[in-house]
Design a protein that fits this description.
The chain has 298 residues and is α/β, with parallel strands linked by helices. It is built from nine helices and twelve strands. The longest helix has 25 residues. It is globular, with a radius of gyration of 19 Å. The two termini are 27 Å apart.
Length: 298
Amino acid sequence: MTAASDRTVFAVDIGGTKIAAAEVRGGRLLDRRQTVTPRTGSGDDLVAAIAGLAPKHAFDAIAVATTGIVRDGALTALNPQTLPIENGYPLARALDKALGVPPLVVNDAQAAAWAEFCVGAAHGFRNFAFFTVSTGIGCGLVIDGHLQTGATGLAGHAGHMMSDPGGAMCGCGRRGCLETIASGTALARLGSERLGRPVGAPDLFAAARQGDANAAEVIGSAINALVDGFADLTAAVDVDCFAVGGGVGLADGFIAALEARSRLLPAVFQRPIVAAQAGADAGLLGAALLSEGNFHLK
């Protein structure tokens, strides 16, 4: 039997715009490559794109991190705007048929949270939350050293906790989700409305740095919503530490602003907020680590 450290894992990370892949051996990502995510709504097209990234030589395991809800190897998009696909698409079964190796399939934020817990920002903490604040908002939870997936795969989808009952309609079908206020997509939409011209999240941050009060207010609302979400999770499961990643989350000054806003909370809800350390490919690494089998899922 191949030792775990010598195994070659074909790791895949499915996002709404790109699919990244790499071979993982001994904790190292090798031969990373990527392709555009098919947005046809067909899971079979998604599998074909993944097969096109697969190595031509043999590998020992497949580990897939993907946006959306994963239940028993089947994938459903909580927000179809992020990844259009048939509800309950049997992704694990289809990949096994296409590549001849049964894969582990897990939500991408859950996988990234496990990478952060194992090799990143969470050393010394047993109850830990990872937030990626990017195009959308993803979250993974590790409670008492166990990665939380939930019976239906929904555990950790904190981007769809309600933040503003009268807010914008979310792609998940609820109104006023955290993702409609604090994601990069939301910042671009709200910033464009307030500034009176089309802007992306990076433009909004640049305007705020140049003293634009409207831009600063939009970003401030996102920070308030995130910190309140952190406090809600702390009240629910007593999180020890929050790690924040993603293009918005790691923007200059963003985590410092989260920390400053957190200090305004009652002390019982205040927790450390740190920068994620596992990097942009935390989903790939976390999925590969999970495929080794030396983990706890709940």
